[in-house]
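Quick note —
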Amino acid sequence: MVLYRSIKVFVFLVVTLSQSIISTQAQVVQTLLFVEDFDTVNNISFSTAMGTPKYGNNEWFINNEYNGNGQYPNTISQSITLGNIGKIGYANGRYLHVRDMNATLASNACFNPLNNSERWAVMNNGVCTFGFDVIGLNFWWTCEGSSKSYGEVYYSIDGGTTWILTKNTDNLTKYKNMPVWKYTVVEDSAFLDQLDLRFAFKWTNVGASSGEKGPFSVDDIMIVATTNPLPPTNITAVFATPNPICQEQVGGIRFFFNVSDDLCPYNVFIVEFADSAGSFANATPISAYGTTNVFGLTTTVPMTAGLWVSPPMGPIHTNIPIGGCYKWRVRMITPPFAGAIVSTGCIQVIDCIDSIVTMEAAVLKDPQNP
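Predicted structure written out below.
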């Protein structure tokens, strides 16, 4: 027995220009999945109270203080980058850094080397990475540190229960010996096809240190997803019901389509028709349920590979001519880009003024209420 999965969505139907399979981009496409620059005071996406082990008075802190006020050395200005290459978005603004919480005068990046500490700054929520080809964590950092005082970057794919050490594209696992701000990238195939990918910055100082050199500081954190020209996922139109449909159809049209690979929630899809002659010129968009802001349907749950069905959609616009073979497809208009393969069958549009065609509704499985 086949169980169809329905999408709980905001719904629309659109008729527009199409081909048998959606054209791929001539170059790679990058999508920003996450960004944190710490300049939005009331919406910080990192927690400094999570992670274990967790001890010591050298803790993560967020502010825009770079002056040690004579108690500690000043923090290097963000206008000074390695080789003067690149620029931090809002130089010398708020940033995430380690601070000696017992310091009475200094609140910049500073630490007490005699106070052993291990501290974490953890993403509160993960990002979904289904359907992309490369995932990179990009950020600016500085840390003088030493062999006993350094920063690390970890990732988790299980909601933050387990943390795994990363290595950046410079082959570093420990962040130290960098007295100026440097841009870095962390990439790993393990970041791909995850429902919940999140990162954490960790500071460690243990044992006696040779001095009070600047601790780990980071800013302008981004998670960037890359899609290659050939999309890794295809969406294949399968069939629609009822079929045929009335030119005056008032609703209740469901479109069944197959997804070749898992997709993230909150993607937006469009159902597209060709005309009865197979031409897609002068396409006619048709909205449903009276909403005109978006033409598409937005999933609210992750989409696993397999057969899916739209909610009841319509009405069909009356300026679509009566015809015996309308080809159609389902196209995803939010990243990542996916192939949209046209149905092999047709949808027939008929005049129902003199005849009424009805079909028994399909039995559907709702993934949110199985």
